[in-house]
TrEMBL record:
<feature type="transmembrane region" description="Helical">
    <location>
        <begin position="107"/>
        <end position="133"/>
    </location>
</feature>
<dbReference type="GO" id="GO:0022857">
    <property type="term" value="F:transmembrane transporter activity"/>
</dbReference>
<feature type="transmembrane region" description="Helical">
    <location>
        <begin position="248"/>
        <end position="271"/>
    </location>
</feature>
<feature type="transmembrane region" description="Helical">
    <location>
        <begin position="51"/>
        <end position="69"/>
    </location>
</feature>
<feature type="transmembrane region" description="Helical">
    <location>
        <begin position="283"/>
        <end position="303"/>
    </location>
</feature>
<dbReference type="Pfam" id="PF07690">
    <property type="entry name" value="MFS_1"/>
</dbReference>
<feature type="domain" description="Major facilitator superfamily (MFS) profile">
    <location>
        <begin position="14"/>
        <end position="391"/>
    </location>
</feature>
<feature type="transmembrane region" description="Helical">
    <location>
        <begin position="140"/>
        <end position="159"/>
    </location>
</feature>
<feature type="transmembrane region" description="Helical">
    <location>
        <begin position="217"/>
        <end position="236"/>
    </location>
</feature>
<keyword id="KW-1133">Transmembrane helix</keyword>
<keyword id="KW-0472">Membrane</keyword>
<keyword id="KW-0812">Transmembrane</keyword>
<protein>
    <submittedName>
        <fullName>MFS transporter</fullName>
    </submittedName>
</protein>
<dbReference type="InterPro" id="IPR011701">
    <property type="entry name" value="MFS"/>
</dbReference>
<dbReference type="InterPro" id="IPR020846">
    <property type="entry name" value="MFS_dom"/>
</dbReference>
<feature type="transmembrane region" description="Helical">
    <location>
        <begin position="367"/>
        <end position="386"/>
    </location>
</feature>
<dbReference type="InterPro" id="IPR036259">
    <property type="entry name" value="MFS_trans_sf"/>
</dbReference>
Length: 402
């Protein structure tokens, strides 16, 4: 058991700047369709499903670009990539505001997909790994604590701007915020990472080989858990109603996910930081099946238990996605590796809402919960199979306690 390396001085400023920029990036991209898809579709004479389909295409494109973005961060640090993400997301939002039909709207979302690849958590995590090496665990947790409020902030802001200026004005408003807030934060408050070879020599010592099959096991864990998270993000209230909860009760229970995620990240920042990230990952992957079992056994009265456990697991998994590869493989080559590990999860996250909706519609809520729980239990088993390498003499000992 160990708290791991302490983050260097100045990390707090970086966490505040990057966490704020990440909140803006998530709110103006990933969480945008929830509020603006319906008015976009209505104004352009399209079904809402077409807008969500274009958004899914953006996520698929971001998955394809992820490894290349990670390699660029490994070579030159993340500051320039994150600044470029602000420019690209601003351009995509302007193109959305100017869209006149399905072709121009689809193109705008593809530009947004490039911005998503450049500017969301994977790039932020790789930037922190380049700056702080193995000491990046605390900063990674810190930015997820701040950006965990992206939907809480983003949905009301999108709704207010759309009410005042229309959906096109809302897109332009978000574009302006990227240029006025996000870009200066990323450009002027993030230091440039040192060259990888110097950083490795300064922080790592000689590394033991990573455990066998670590990459495919991690890729499976992240794909399985992110697929479920994407599915429930779209269908959770409807699924809870299918268990017998009233619409009001279902919405009230679903609203607990956000606070549960933040509470779990505070737990990771405090108590769980004393343990290896594998311990956090194993707790995170068992939480959803426990909540699903309670929901199936006790019915809608257990809906809050299910959503709290799912939210806590999802909140910790967001951090584990950044910290566990760092603990197992180290910071050298982190960006490219993170891009490869994230690609399957982004593909499945794009497809999961459709697939899960079909299961709910054509099978039953019990089958849907069995599917999600099965994926999480398989991820838990994969976590049990993972072991961490012990560094050879001469390097600092890794955090233990898994």
């Amino acid at each position: 058991m160990s708290a791991g390396p302490a983050a260097p001085p100045g990390a707090r400023r970086v966490v505040l700047a990057l966490g704020t920029a990440q909140t803006l990036a998530w709110a103006s991209s990933y969480y945008l369709p929830a509020i603006l898809a319906a008015p976009m579709a209505r104004d352009l004479g399209l079904p809402s499903s077409w807008v969500f389909g274009a958004f899914s295409a953006a996520l698929v494109l971001s998955a394809l670009l992820g490894p290349a973005v990670g390699r660029a961060i490994d070579r030159r640090g993340g500051r320039g990539v994150l600044v470029m993400s602000n420019l690209v997301l601003a351009a995509g939002l302007v193109l959305l505001a100017l869209a006149q039909g399905p072709a121009t709207l689809g193109f705008a979302w593809l530009v947004m997909g490039v911005g998503i690849a450049l500017g969301l958590y994977d790039s932020a995590f790789a930037t922190l790994a380049g700056l702080y090496g193995r000491a990046a665990r605390g900063p990674i947790t810190g930015i997820t604590l701040i950006a965990g409020f992206a939907s809480t902030v983003g949905w009301p802001v999108s709704a207010l701007m759309a009410e005042a200026f229309g959906w096109r004005g809302a897109c332009l408003g978000w574009a302006a915020l990227h240029l006025l807030i996000g870009l200066p934060l990323n450009r002027f408050l993030l230091p440039q990472a040192p060259p990888p070879t110097k950083q490795a020599a300064a922080t790592e010592g000689e590394e033991a080989p990573a455990p066998r099959f670590a990459m495919p096991l991690l890729a499976f864990v992240f794909a399985a858990t992110w697929a479920v998270a994407g599915a429930l993000a779209a269908h959770l209230p409807a699924m809870l109603q299918a268990t017998g909860a009233s619409p009001a009760a279902a919405i009230a229970a679903a609203a607990l996910i956000g606070p549960a995620q933040v509470a779990a990240r505070l737990l990771e920042f405090g108590l769980l930081s004393r343990f290896h990230p594998l311990a956090s990952g194993r707790l995170a992957t068992i939480a959803h099946p426990l909540g699903a079992a309670a929901l199936l056994l006790f019915g809608p009265v257990a809906a809050p238990v299910f959503t709290v456990l799912h939210g806590m697991g999802n909140g910790i998994m967001t951090i584990v996605k950044g910290t566990l590869p760092l603990a197992i493989f180290g910071p050298v080559g982190y960006g490219a590796r993170q891009g490869l590990l994230s690609a399957p999860s982004r593909f499945l996250q794009a497809l999961a809402p459709l697939g899960f909706g079909l299961v709910l519609e054509r099978a039953s809520v019990e089958a849907a919960l069995a599917l999600t729980s099965g994926l999480y239990l398989a991820a838990f088993i994969a976590m049990l199979l993972l072991r961490t390498p012990q560094r050879r003499p001469g390097g600092a000992s890794p955090a233990r306690g898994a």
